[in-house]
TrEMBL record:
This is S1-C subfamily serine protease. Residues 1-27 form the signal peptide. One of its GO terms (molecular function) is serine-type endopeptidase activity. Gene3D superfamilies: 2.30.42.10, 2.40.10.120. Residues 264-344 form the PDZ domain. One of its GO terms (biological process) is proteolysis. PANTHER family: PEPTIDASE S12, PROTEASE DO-LIKE 8, CHLOROPLASTIC. It comes from Streptomyces griseochromogenes. Keywords: Hydrolase, Protease, Signal. It comes from the Bacteria.
């Protein structure tokens, strides 16, 4: 399923789930039976009541929402997350586009602040902007560890969907480790991003660049795009959204804040320009090398312009998107076997991946 930023407004019907039939002051937990000898059960080991869970939601929202801002570019609107007290804000590259200055509205301000672009990194769809004058009390978000994100965890998506600032939706982590390719239409960067967090929390236009937060108040991802269903004319597929993992956000934003740019992408590359080729039935049949960077991974492995890659480490590659997705999961320095066609002959080569 291709994923891209959604551009259509759709209604989401929310259903309240009755957790228990008997209304009690303590929520849905049954009365605890008298402890038997040797029973080591403690209150901390019991499930949260509905009241406890609601209070935790409220606590997290109060803590994190002040760290989520609305970003207005001349032709687009998105969200951002306060990175530090100096006024650095991390967002999506597709939110800033090609612009250099922005209006930023914080959760506690009525008038927008001006901000300028520090650096945009479209390959990972991340960017950092900086407020011209950071207001007193600006509260940085706490970025969590993506490695601790588990399927089933409750998460909250915070941002400005459709321009509705300081909005919160809730869901769970539906999957981790997704490799997703953005569409380049509708303002997307066309990036292929690995290890994304899939969530059922509603991701709408304007949520891009905001915060996906766990119940510990840690930002575990930056909501970036929602899935679309080609069978529905490209309409959004409700409940399938994706967020860039916090660990990648820390890596990229940290380099930008420190050096003004990304100096170590950590992304593997072949050092080629490519296009998809089709067979006689007009079906994708491989990836043709249009040009090869001198001294790059493909050049060192003996590949030439005109070669058509068909497999990467035994996995079929029929389109440029599939090649990007395969490389997104690899690391610079990794050795791979590349199968390709040259003037009708089947060949293979060992390639040591370079860095993008």
């Amino acid at each position: 399923m291709d994923a891209s930023r959604t551009r259509a407004l759709w209604r989401v019907a929310c259903a309240a789930v009755l957790l228990c039939a008997a209304p009690t002051a303590s929520g849905c937990t049954a009365p605890k039976p008298p402890a038997e000898k040797g029973d080591s059960t403690t209150p901390a080991a019991l499930p949260l009541s509905a009241v406890d869970l609601q209070n935790q939601y409220l606590k997290v929202i109060r803590e994190v929402l002040p760290s989520v801002v609305q970003i207005q570019a001349s032709h687009d609107l998105g969200s951002g997350v306060v990175y530090d007290a100096q006024g650095h804000i991390v967002t999506n590259a597709h939110v800033v586009g090609s612009e250099k200055s922005f209006e930023v509205t914080t959760a506690n301000s009525e008038e927008p602040f001006t901000a300028r672009l520090v650096y945009s990194y479209p390959d990972q769809d991340l960017a950092v902007i900086k407020l011209d004058k950071a207001p007193a009390g600006l509260k940085p978000a706490v970025l969590g560890s993506s490695e601790r994100v588990e399927v089933g965890q409750i998460v909250l998506a915070m941002g400005s969907p459709l321009g509705l600032s300081s909005s919160v939706t809730q869901g769970i982590v539906s999957a981790t480790g997704r490799t997703v390719s953005e569409g380049s239409s509708g303002g997307g960067t066309g990036a292929t991003i690995a290890n994304m967090v899939q969530t059922s929390a509603a991701i709408n236009p304007g949520n891009s660049g905001g915060a996906l937060v766990n119940l510990d108040g840690r930002v575990v991802g930056i909501p970036t795009l929602a899935a679309t269903d080609p069978d529905l004319g490209g309409s959004a597929a409700p409940g399938i959204g994706f967020a860039i993992p916090a660990s990648m956000v820390k890596t990229v934003a940290g380099q930008i804040v420190k050096s003004g740019k990304v100096v170590d992408s950590g992304r593997a590359a072949l050092g080629v320009t490519v296009r998809t080729v089709v067979d006689d039935s007009y079906q994708p049949a491989g990836v043709a090398l249009v040009s090869i960077r001198s001294g790059g991974a493909a050049d060192k492995a003996g590949l030439r312009p005109g070669d058509v890659i068909t497999k990467l480490d035994g996995t079929a590659v029929t389109t440029t998107t599939e090649l990007s997705e395969a490389l997104a999961a690899d690391r610079p320095g990794q050795r791979l076997k590349v199968a390709f066609q040259r003037e009708g002959d089947e060949k293979s080569a060992e390639v040591t991946l370079g860095e993008q």
